[in-house]
Design brief:
By secondary structure, the protein is of the alpha+beta class. The chain has one domain (35-157): Jelly Rolls (Sandwich), CATH 2.60.120.380. It has helices at residues 3-22, 35-50; strands at residues 53-63, 71-75, 81-86, 93-99, 105-112, 120-125, 131-140, 148-157. The strands form 2 sheets. The protein has a 4-stranded antiparallel beta sheet, covered by helices on one side. The protein has a 4-stranded antiparallel beta sheet with strand order 2-7-4-5, with no helix packed on it. The longest helix is centred in the N-terminal third of the chain and has 20 residues, at 3-22. The N and C termini lie far apart (71 Å). The mean pLDDT is 87.
Length: 159
Amino acid sequence: MGIIQKLFSVLLIITCSFNKLFSQDVIRQKPCNNPIISAQADSIKELYAKQGFAVVRESSVSMESEYEVPVILPLAEGSWYQFVFIGDISSKLYEVRMYDWSEKQVVYQKKTRGDQDANIINFSYIPPSSEHYMIKPLQVNKMKKDELCGYVILMKKMK
């Protein structure tokens, strides 16, 4: 093996080592399937569709008790949005916080098991500026620590 081939092999090994060393694992949200939550989501979408809202984004998501799940959404200035979070019916606490791009909290909603429709948090929002917003739903469940199911829906009022 010539000196150039040896140098090339050494550089290739070093490059691969650095690439592996400095690469980050990507955390991906896993969907979940809960027939009760799916039925509630379908009913809510149907209700808001009759009021002129269209689904912009929706997703089921596996959650862990007491941990927020950040959802980043681009919202347009002056548009009327409806946000819905549906949590596992057996959880005892549900919260949703919404932050603007400067990390200022613009919405906070909380429900507990005794509240009517406790596992559903919904709110309207009309952004004062076009930017990305972060929504952080959370649920607390003493029986299930992980593999809780949650559902997030973002709808926009159509003109």
